[in-house]
Structure formats: C-alpha cells, structure tokens
Design a protein that fits this description.
The structure is a single chain. The protein is α+β, with helices and mostly antiparallel strands and about 475 residues long. Among the domains are: about 90 residues; about 70 residues, no CATH class. The protein is about 35% helix and about 20% strand. Strand 18 and strand 19 form a beta hairpin. The chain is globular. About 45% of the residues are buried. The protein binds flavin-adenine dinucleotide.
C-alpha cells in the first residue's frame, strides 16, 4: 500500500482521492478551509464557509459527461448527488419549438444529468469522500518536501509541510488546490525548472441571482442566450432552486450598473423569453464575479518532468472560463485519467509523470483549446457590440452548427453532445454528412437573437 497526499478538498481533489483510495492506497486529503461539511444541502448553502473556493456560491451546472463519469467510476457520489436532491435534467429540454420532430430516440438518456447548486454538488461529493478517505480540514500545505533525485536536475517530491510545521511523507503528492494553486512557485522553490504556463484573462463579468420556487421555470430559450452586448445564462438547480446570470464584456462600464438588484431585474423583465425566470423567491443578492482566468500548465518540459513524485489535477493544472459550465466535468475526466496512470505507474515516478502528461494532452487539452477558442470568438463579438462596431460573424463548422441546430433534431443532438462534453467538436464534425447538412440549413436560416432590449434601450434603462 502506498501513501498518497492530495492537496485541496474541492470537488476534484476529493474525487481523485476516492479513486486512488479505491485502488487500496492510504490517501489523505489536506483542505485549508477549516469548516466541517454541514449536515444538509440547505445548511451548506446558508453557512458553509468555503472561502478557499471563490466561486462557491456562483452558478454551477454538472454536464452529462461529469454525471456519467461519476455513475461509472464513483457510483457512491452519483448516489449522494441524488440523495442530496440534485435534479435530473435533460439537455434536450432546451430543444426549441422550431424543431418539429420531437420524438425520443435511442441513446437520448445520455443527455440527462444530475445537477444542483455548487454548494449541493460539493456537499454530496464530500459526504461520499468522508466515508472513503481521510479528509483533514483546516490544514494548509505550505511547501513541498524533497528526497534523493531520480534524475539529475529533477527534484523528487517525498512529502509536504503543513502550516502547523508538520512534515508528512508520501509516495505521491497530488496538487488539487484549484485555480489559485501556487504549484509553480512551490516547484521553483525546490529547484525545479519552471513548468510551461499560459494564461488568458477572460474578458467577462458576471452578475448572478439565485431563486427558489414551487414551479421551476421551463426553458423558452437555451441555457445560454447571446444578445448583442450581454448574455443570459439560466441554470436549473436542486431543491426547487435556479440561477439567472447576466454576463458582459468586463470593459463595459455602463453594464456594471446591473449590480443594483432593481436594474438587474429590469433587464431580465425586458427579455420576453427569460422574464419568467424571475418568478420565484430570491435567495441571494445579485452576486458579482470577474477576473476569471483560463490557465494551462504543463509539468513536462523538453520531454522531462520538472519534478517527480508530484502531479496536478483539475483547476490546479488546467482551468477555463466558466461560461460553458465545463470545469467540473473536465476535472472529473482528469481525475479518472490520473487514477488510471497512478494505478499503472506509481512505482516508476518518471514514467508516471510522462504518462500523466500524455493522458492530460489526450483527454483535457482538447477541451481546453476548444473552450478558449470559443471564448475568444464570443469576446470579440460582445466587445464589438459594446464599442458600437459591426460584430464579426462567426465562421466555420461550429458557427453553421450553431444556426442549424435550431432547425434539425439530429443537429440539435450533435450540438448537445458537444455542450455536454459527450463528444469533442472534431469528432462530431467528422460524422458523414453532418457538416454538409448544417451548412445547407445555415444558408437558409439567419442566426437568431433572442427577444430583448436593443443596446440603446438597455443603456437608457440602466441610466434611469
Ligand atoms: C464563476 C464560476 C462558475 C463556474 N461554473 C461551473 C459550472 O457551471 N460547471 C462546471 O463544471 N464548472 C464550473 N466552474 C468551474 C469549477 O468551479 C471548477 O472547475 C472546480 O471547482 C474545480 O475543482 P478543483 O477541486 O480542481 O478546485 P477547487 O474547487 O478550487 O478546490 C480547491 C481546494 O483547494 C483548497 N486549497 C487551496 N490551497 C490550499 C493549500 N495550500 N492547502 C490545502 N488546501 C488548499 C481550497 O480551499 C479548495 O477547497 C465555474 C467556475 C467559476 C469561477
């Protein structure tokens, strides 16, 4: 049995720990936030102090890919999600009325997820984890401890030091400390070459409000509706809750007025396909969020790991702007892949580092690249609208599918496979005839903009 220390008890740290624990290793999770897991999902929403996760009370949605990974690899968590009141939600519920063939098809179950507020999702994951591995809350890991190197110039990590000054030895350290992970500094501090890192500041600013009601709203537009200079994200949650988010270009100073609940409400009320999402009891203020970064790290430089005995998983290695609601599902893919390579190579730390890098490149990098590309195009559009310039029209197969999906049941499902992370865009586009069909429909249908105020009307409304 090997001893493995996981740094960070967020959703992906806990999932990784459970997967490794299942292999028979002695796994301990160190989580810096001290507050114990509350007794119920509602107590988690009200009181759980999780300041280590800045997005803890921001909108979250678990995509179908994440749900199915849990069903397959961590059924205890899938059961805990259901027991915590998470909502079975079918992505096909967003199918627009313009599609007339609405018959069920074989395989449609794959679009059904189990989702909830972030506080509930994490409550469920923590409930399962605390039964399976040791989770020590209130322990901050401050630095990595090293032993004899296995390769010249490559430090070998043999444990961690905690803020209490305790040294804990481990055969493997897994960093899951999220988007604020300071792993690069910690590696440099032990003499490692700096990992590769690229970052991109997401140009969006978000204002979200949560609601609860006895009749959760039905979809009259998709989750994500792009207007001219703003977008609306409407997400179903657990226990009769839901969230409504307005997001826009962070340089759009006029729209910062939406922080005021009265103005925020006025905007949603002025959007006919979305106004009914206000028909509930507000259970939060209008919550702001901005400054979210896309960040990509690689711990392998010139074919050699920068260090051995340490891996990173989830947001600590790769994190994306949240608009696509992908982080947890990508993190779960990464956690499953991490457990697979640890299962195979734990006894050979150099090969483990290489295999982990290969697995990340194969399973996580394509989703990162796709998400960043999508964000760049969306940012360019929303920014142009804000600055009064003509909006650049998206081109290529993704743009054609984006229009055609509203008119064809097969293409709608194809787009939902991408949205739900069930298939990568290039896999979907490679299906025989799919792109031809999307292009033909995109030629005869204009892109639709949901009904709502023009930019001029919006600015007038916010100034009043
Ligand atoms: C606004 C917003 C909305 C989002 N919406 C969605 C969504 O709808 N769907 C989706 O799938 N994803 C969404 N995401 C992404 C999702 O939140 C992350 O991908 C996910 O939380 C990553 O989990 P993690 O465990 O890797 O990191 P985190 O959840 O950040 O957990 C890291 C943990 O490490 C702990 N920690 C930090 N430093 C130390 C230390 N030194 N020692 C010990 N512990 C430490 C922290 O306290 C924290 O508990 C969103 C993100 C944002 C910012």
């Amino acid at each position: 049995m090997s001893r493995i220390v996981v740094l960070g008890g967020g959703m992906i740290g806990l999932a990784t720990a459970m997967l490794l624990g299942r292999q028979g290793h002695d796994v301990t999770v160190f989580e810096k936030d001290a507050t114990p897991r509350p007794a119920s999902p509602d107590a988690a929403w009200e009181d759980w102090d999780r300041r280590g996760v800045v997005q803890f009370r921001q909108p979250h949605f678990l995509q179908p890919a994440g749900r199915w990974l849990l069903e397959e690899h961590l059924p205890e968590v899938a059961q805990a999600l259901a027991a915590a009141g998470c909502l079975p939600f079918d992505l096909l519920a967003q199918m627009p009325r313009s599609i007339t063939n609405r018959d069920k098809r074989a395989g449609d179950d794959r679009f059904v997820t189990l989702t909830g507020r972030r506080t509930t999702l994490e409550f469920a994951v923590a409930t399962a984890a605390e039964r399976m591995v040791q989770v020590e809350r209130g322990v901050t890991v401050t630095r990595l401890v090293t032993g004899r190197s296995l390769r010249d110039g490559v430090p070998h990590v043999t444990g961690v030091c905690t803020s209490a000054g305790e040294e804990v030895s481990a055969d493997l350290v897994v960093d899951a400390t999220g988007r604020k992970s300071n792993l690069v500094d910690q590696l440099v501090a032990i003499g490692a070459r700096p990992p590769l890192e690229s970052t991109e500041e997401s140009a969006f600013f978000y204002y979200t409000r949560f609601f609860r009601g006895s009749n959760p709203p039905q979809f009259r537009a998709g989750f994500l509706a792009n207007f001219h200079s703003f977008s609306l994200l409407t997400l179903p949650g657990d226990s009769g809750t839901w969230s409504v988010t307005v997001f826009f270009f962070s340089g759009d100073a006029a729209l910062k007025a939406l922080r005021d609940p009265a103005r925020w409400t006025k905007l949603i009320s002025a959007c006919p396909a979305h106004a009914h999402w206000l028909e509930g009891e507000p259970i939060s203020d209008v919550l702001p969020m901005g400054g979210v970064t896309d960040r990509y790290r690689r711990l392998m430089v010139d074919g050699m790991p920068v260090a051995t005995g340490v891996l990173a998983v989830g947001d600590a290695l790769v994190c994306t702007n949240p608009v696509g609601g992908r982080g947890i599902s990508i993190g779960l893919m990464h956690a499953v892949g991490t457990a697979e390579v640890v299962g195979e190579y734990l006894d050979d730390p150099v090969e483990l580092a290489r295999a982990h890098d290969r697995m990340t490149q194969a399973r996580v990098t394509p989703w990162y690249t796709y998400t960043v590309g999508f964000d760049r195009a969306h940012t360019a559009q929303i920014r142009a609208a804000t600055e009064g310039r003509p909006t650049p029209l998206p081109t290529g197969p993704g743009a054609a599918l984006g229009v055609a999906m509203l008119h064809d049941a097969t293409l709608f499902r194809a787009a939902m496979e991408i949205m739900g992370l069930l298939a990568l865009p290039h896999e979907v586009y490679a299906r025989p005839g799919l792109i031809d069909r999307a292009m033909k429909l995109a030629d005869v249908h204009a892109p639709t903009v949901p009904p709502g105020p023009s930019r001029t009307e919006l600015l007038r409304m916010l100034a009043a």
